[in-house]
């Protein structure tokens, strides 16, 4: 089974549109959205697009539960803005997405097999990966949440970070996703028109539009910068 894993779109509609064009050429059996779909500059348009995709599979991310207050006032203001762009039914649909999905001996979750918050990375200690993966029946665990692509195996349990379509923490701007084909992993990066995307973001009205355009589209934080900023 070919699964295109698209994680952490974060309302970056131009990035998603570019990835979907690439995905179509791959003819996947399943198009999976791994959470944090709309929290960003173009939430309603992004949600309308993903829900129009026939047969797409969705799992819930932490940012999909819009009712949860954020401790950072600036981040919370952005979430409230996103919430105001959506209807009650759309907000409920996001909050009620399933926690996980499984196929071909791979478990797809947003952050980890237990919750939608605790982050795991390429530098997470082996003991933690071993403990958090010990009750998972599948041999592969596909995650997002930290917006980085990574691949590690501990005691026969493979952890895969699919990357982020809309807000990557990598060395090069673009939209990052993963293709899994009967256990074979192919990390992908899709180029898109960054200047045009930044202009769309700036016109969105999102309270952090300037920051999103300059720091998550035109350039992106490196892994080292993200690790230092978020304490990963």
Provide an overview of this structure:
The protein has 232 residues and is an alpha/beta fold. The protein has one domain (2-230): Purple Acid Phosphatase, chain A, domain 2 (4-Layer Sandwich). Helices cover 34% and strands 21% of the residues. The chain has 8 helices and 10 strands. It has helices at 13-26, 43-51, 73-85, 88-95, 126-133, 194-202, 209-217, 223-230; strands spanning 2-6, 30-33, 57-58, 100-103, 106-109, 140-143, 149-154, 157-162, 175-181, 184-190. The radius of gyration is 16 Å and the shape is globular. The model has no long low-confidence stretch (mean pLDDT 96).
Summarize it.
The chain has about 230 residues and is of the alpha/beta class. It has 8 helices and 10 strands.
In total, the number of strands is 10
> What proportion strand?
15-25%
Number of helices: 8
Q: Under the CATH scheme, which class?
A: Alpha Beta
Topology:
Layout: E1 2-6, H1 13-26, E2 30-33, H2 43-51, E3 57-58, H3 73-85, H4 88-95, E4 100-103, E5 106-109, H5 126-133, E6 140-143, E7 149-154, E8 157-162, E9 175-181, E10 184-190, H6 194-202, H7 209-217, H8 223-230
Parallel strand pairs: 1-2, 2-3, 5-6, 6-8
Antiparallel strand pairs: 1-9, 4-5, 7-8, 9-10
